[in-house]
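Reopening: protein-serine/threonine phosphatase still failing for me.
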Amino acid sequence: MSTSQSEITEVMKSPLVPLATLIGRELRGEKIEKPSVKCGQAALAKKGEDYFLIKPDCIRVPGDQSSSFSVFAVFDGHNGISAAIYSKENLLNHVLSAIPHGIEGEDWLKALPQALVAGFVKTDIEFQRKGETSGTTATLVVIDGLTVTVASVGDSRCILDTQGGTVSLLTVDHRLEENVEERERVTASGGEVGRLNVYGGTEVGPLRCWPGGLCLSRSIGDMDVGEFIVPVPHVKQVKLSNAGGRLIIASDGIWDALSNDAAAKSCRGLPADLAAKMVVKLCLEELIDSDKPNIEGWKAKFDETCHICVVLGVTSLTEALRSRGLKDDTTCLVVDIIPPECSVSPSTPRKKQSMWSSLIFGKKSQKSVSRSTKLSSVGAVEELFEEGSAMLAERLGKDFPWKTSSELFRCAICQVNQPPSEGLSVNSGPYFSPTSKPWEGPFLCNTCRKKKDAMEGKLRSQPTMTR
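Support: Ran it again with your exact input. Result attached.
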């Protein structure tokens, strides 16, 4: 069939779109309009070391709304607040600076997992240069359309609740007590894992890493413990169905009291702002219930009329319950990803005759980087990427951009350009090692290479501390 001159002229007037983009949209049935993102936040402070980040209006290309994305994060500090504050202010910029300039769409999303690794490690290096000993967990969530990418170190957590009531964990807890793989990695890198010794040799409390006594195997900061406590994040990337979904991102104060399912179920059907408050409220109630034998006596003496607790001397029942039951900071973000055709939160309660099919979250290999050629049916979540290794050579990969237009080599972590003679490949190894490929990128500067070697136990200059 021939094309008329008028049709050709009309097409030429339209904005030019790359053929690959058009084909991709056709294969995926992609809609240009992105889902809306609604967020709610709630917190109760015991130590004042939790911080959070809410940036729902990020833009890759100024003036181009199709390049918009959202970022949410929770930072749970310990041994002070400096690391949490520094990470809140700098982590996102470090991640974005590691993404090659000029890439968009699917390519941007494919580069994001490696950029998250580089950004987390750079944040740790830069903060440790300040000479402060505090540390922090970090759970960073990037939402681009229906694609959700989560990077985390520590034990703050992100769960996904989708239509039909399926709840999926998008993070991995880096607690030595529960994570056998992390215990083995720490000891292999030169650390010692054990409980706190008290008078008489009795061991108490959770498993900790020595020196330092940290219960976590991954964090940002913590320069007073060994470098085997690494800032390399677990990263998971998924694509939601057209039904959208709800994310609950919270510090461990929430998860110590609530299961994933309990947190999700408690706030279904509520808008995001009320949902976050409901999760924190339920967390506090669970903590109170666990201490019920000690609390019933003074709770009965509370005067509802004048709002005075005669035992604790506080001015409200809420304050009384908080002072008695709260053991840790609790911070909760609830993020709803709502498709354009919907006007309400996607996480509605499941009814007996639900019009939504149950959602399936397929389990894939920890090292899976494969991408399906077609999105699963409505009501399914597609896993795009998951990797949790602490080894930078595995996380950055030889396809990570490492060469500049001026033939200088760029450090994959700190993004500093350097002459080829000063760059050290992340794949470099012992002389004559069959696995050593020093001619392949990515490259690291001398400082970042030392950081890599220390995390892998190749530098044994860790601080000493008795327990």
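The chain has a mean pLDDT of 78. If you still see a failure, please send the error message rather than a screenshot.
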